[in-house]
Specification:
442 residues; six-stranded parallel β-sheet; 14 helices; alpha/beta
């Protein structure tokens, strides 16, 4: 193979969670380090990487649909079809079936994407490449140094899951829980700050299960808090079973740790939670939230919900609505149950009709939307720091995030990456409007 055979341009399309966003960024850095140039338009790229998610319904079919669209657009535009690489959790779950069915060039799982340049080179030489091995985080040592990033950056600290919730495919696509070494995380955090980040979100399937020897996530946060230039720290996604007191205490006394906690509960019925193999019940979950609020009364709470789990009755769904009312979430994610092949729940009796799930989801989302609007409205009149992340649609408008992860719009000549003290003036369902008071020193 000659250098001319290799793709010269690439595009990464990431689906799903923040960890996929992080993985997509790292794959882009790998390909840039290998001499390729990123392009925003997948229809002009020589290589398109579909970085897939397997959590939601019809995830696999969406991948095949995207592959077909890319090839159709190439024909319409009378250009050669791009090389296609399928990465992420669908790649891990489907493996050789994707190569057989879609004739793609590269299939690479989430624990093997550090091998992407070599796989692309092999494909360019005419050999379709498949790598779905799951080594213990060896990929991180093979990744290039972090390049320039935006004001807010993701940093994966933990991968995989040992919880085996009956509805979830993550243990099968991401593997067992594994924590990255403490020193490697600190080094990457420093590199992100040097590259322009002022806020870092620590990522993991069960991020609060991170451990290195006797150190837990709270110890890591306290060390990161001392990095000059790092103004904000967040983490997601947490599991109630791993919410240690040390981490709760950190919310009370680490200034850079933002007052926001994403702590999925999934349902309000104890019977359903047991069927899901969740390790908590509603009472223990609410007690945990009380402990967090005791140290950080203004904390914004977020959660995940599944409606229509097999066997869920109307009375059990009503328990979920009562839990939502009791908590008052600042924001939350909610979905209809969809069976994932190979998970225990996929074989459970008591499937809920789709129309029933639709109706329940609408009621749940109405309740969650009501509470998000109320939380935003209660923020009006506050002053807070907003980290400017991007330009708005209007001339002079900038968008940023409050400490409570609310989107804030304001008219300012502040630059992306600036921290601005803002008076919050009005609230909508998903965002707030503010007025600049003063710039905050770096």
């Amino acid at each position: 193979m000659t250098p001319a055979d290799k793709p010269k341009t690439f595009h990464v399309k990431s689906f799903g969670c923040q960890m996929n966003v992080y993985d997509g960024e790292r794959m882009a850095e790998l390909m840039a380090a290998d001499g390729m140039t990123a392009t925003a338009d997948p229809d002009t790229a020589d290589l398109v990487v579909l970085n897939t998610c397997h959590i939601r319904d019809r995830a696999t079919e969406k991948v095949y649909s995207d592959i077909g669209r890319l090839r159709k657009n190439a024909r319409v535009n009378e250009r050669a079809a791009p090389m296609i690489a399928v990465a992420g959790c669908v790649a891990q779950a489907e493996g050789e079936e994707i190569v057989r069915r879609a004739k793609v060039d590269v299939v690479v799982g989430p624990q093997a994407y550090h091998n992407l340049p070599a796989l692309v080179a092999s494909a360019a030489a005419g050999t379709p490449s498949l790598d779905t091995d799951m080594p213990l985080l060896s990929k991180f040592g093979a990744l290039p140094a972090r390049r320039r990033v935006g004001p807010s950056a993701f940093l994966t600290v933990q991968e995989g899951c040992d919880k085996f919730c009956t509805y979830c495919v993550v243990p099968y696509t991401r593997g067992a829980e594994v924590s990255r070494p403490f020193a490697a995380i600190v080094d990457e955090a420093k590199a992100l700050v040097d590259a322009g980040a002022r806020e870092i979100t620590l990522l993991g399937q069960n991020v609060n299960a991170w451990v290195d020897g006797t150190r837990g996530l709270h110890d890591l946060i306290r060390v990161l808090d001392r990095i000059p230039g790092l103004a904000r720290i967040r983490y997601t996604t947490s599991h109630p079973n791993d919410m240690a007191q040390g981490l709760i205490d950190a919310h009370g006394d680490v200034e850079s740790l933002m007052p926001f906690l994403h702590l999925p509960v999934q349902a309000g019925s104890d019977r359903v939670l047991k069927a899901m193999n969740r390790s908590h019940d509603t009472a223990s979950y609410l007690r945990l939230l009380d402990r967090v609020r005791a140290v950080r009364p203004d904390i914004a709470l977020s959660g995940d919900f599944i409606v229509g789990f097999p066997g869920e009755t109307e009375a059990e769904f009503a328990e979920t609505l009562r839990l939502v009312e009791a908590v008052g979430y600042a924001q939350a994610y909610s979905f209809k149950y969809s069976p994932r092949p190979g998970t225990p729940a996929a074989d459970m009796a008591g499937a809920i009709p789709d129309a029933v799930m639709d109706e329940r989801l609408q009621r749940l989302q109405a309740a969650l939307g009501r509470d998000q609007q109320a939380f935003n409205q209660a923020s009006v009149g506050r002053s807070c720091d907003v980290l400017i992340e991007r330009r708005g649609k209007l001339p002079g408008q900038m968008l940023g995030k409050s400490p409570w992860l609310q989107s804030v719009h304001l008219m300012t000549d502040a630059a992306i990456g600036d921290m601005v003290s803002v008076d919050l003036l009005s609230a909508g369902p998903v965002s707030l409007a503010g007025a600049e008071r003063v710039r905050v020193a770096a």
